[in-house]
Amino acid sequence: MTRSESIKDGLVQVMSSSHLQDNYDVIVVGTDPEGISAALSSARNGLKTLLVDGRNRDRLGGLMTIGWLNTIDMDRLPAKSSEKSPEILNKGIFLEWYSQIEGDSFDVITAANVFYQMIRNEPNLDLLMKVKSIDPLTGKGKDARPKVEGIKVVKENGEEAVISSPTVIDATQDGDIMAQAGVPYTYGREDLGDRESRMAVTAVFRLKHVTPEVWKQIQDRFNKNDNPETGDNEESAWGFIDFNDYQPINQRRVKMRGLKISRQKNDKVLINGMQIFHIDGADPGKRAEAFQIARSEVPHVLQYLKEHYPEFKNVEPDGIAPELYVRETRHMQGEYRLSILDILENKDQWDRVAFGSCPVDIQHLHAEDSAAVACSPRQYAIPFRSLVPIQMNGLLVVGRAASYHSLAHGSARVIPVGMAEGQSAGAAAKIAKEQNITFHELSASREMIDKLHELLQRQGMDLKPFKHPSSPFMKHRQYEGLKVAVSLGLADGGCSNNFHLDETSNPFRMAQLVKRAGFIQKEGWKQDPMTALQNIEKPEETALTLDQAAYTITQALGIPSTLKQARTELEKAGILSNESEDTILNKEKMTIGDMYMLLKDLKNGIETRY
């Protein structure tokens, strides 16, 4: 049996390095895939590197291997012809690892062992696992900005160690190091005026006794189903739309969506489908609460499976993932914050370090909420500036805590993007050291970014510039209104980018739009815009007029007016422009695009007044 085969048969024990230095060229905190990629990159670039983790893990890979999120959201560029496969956008270290596992869905033990083997192959790389605490050391940099200068750790045995380094890369899921160092950040949907709501977290659970015969029965079920939302292959199956009818025992805190089932070795499968609400993923106490909820719910989910799907009659529970799938916590404030409009418009960046193409997935916030896909890009770039925190030197942040707007994070949070960022961060540390510059100086210099691109290209990444044709909706006469609606999270185009701009609207929909905008804007909103519907018998079946739309806004802002006076009052207040009115083709039968133009004027007017 070969060494690689023996590795894949069972989990290889991860060992910390026996001797640690007091000083490293680079310290990477976090053993999720992004951190592994960053550590490999810096080590391969000749920098003495320490990879350290403080989450009591027994393996590498974090979310993928301990959270059991074992299906990768791949960033691919559609093939130019039917004879070619879609192109994987993020190559380099991500593709090196991906080529050694089973595919888009993989065995978590295989993945963990491949990560560890890659780490063990690097002589410049030390590994320190299971530390009890990690704190950043800060001082003053050469440009008077504060600077991260290393870390202080308490090891598993209780021993304290101070380890210095000119570069620390924060690859923790929640941006723990950047937050402790004092870097500004927003939390959850705070940038949309909502700091309290949280995307659902997921507890993946495992079932056993799913034999090849059982898997064949699962595939047969899907082969008889022509629903485009379901599908299967040899490693995974997705759909089970009937699960939307499952009634949780904890209906306020749990919701089951269509299941995603992934095969593991030894006749086991992982089930991704349980969403748990009102959990702050950065709070250990709340994470423990989520696990308790999951442990109570799983037996009932399994009973439902057995009652509705005969192929599951002999399966049994086999545990819950040791870590939760937490989608969102902190969003760093960086030199550039990736926006939803960057994604909507397939925007390239001059300092690109990774590419994204996944749909913008906005998951449920509570059990009564519905998930949405804001838009589906073809390709966009992540700039190096999104890894560089404002007001702090010596630190880079990679992964889902990087500098993304909360909506953009719905696409950019995926693993291939984070691993490309990690590889770029490791290479940037080499450039900064060789040129004796800070990351802020690097991020502002086209010459230095060119050097970074040349280095990464030689090391397997493909960071060529790109330009795609404008999407049809960008040519619509009311695109400026759509941009505002999308940026506020008030318009969803789905996977087909159909925003229904020319679809007829109604008074109820207008009132809902203004009400939702008030949750975000807050300043200026005086009362519920639904009061504008009081004299309309069937507001969902009535055509929306410009007078009614304007009246809805005056009611929300507390501007005294009648239905006929509303337009004039908004014009006087600077909240309705001639330019927007001119785009409205039928003022007695307004469209969704018309509404978005009024939303644009409303936003601009409120910002001017307040």
TrEMBL record:
One Pfam family it belongs to: FAD_oxidored
Keyword Secreted: no
A molecular function GO annotation: oxidoreductase activity
Keyword entries, A-Z: 4Fe-4S, Iron, Iron-sulfur, Metal-binding, Oxidoreductase
SUPFAM superfamilies assigned: FAD/NAD(P)-binding domain
Keyword Transcription regulation carried by entry: no
Superkingdom classification of source: Bacteria
Record's protein name: Dihydrolipoamide dehydrogenase
Organism: Paenibacillus larvae subsp. pulvifaciens
Organism lineage string: Bacteria, Bacillati, Bacillota, Bacilli, Bacillales
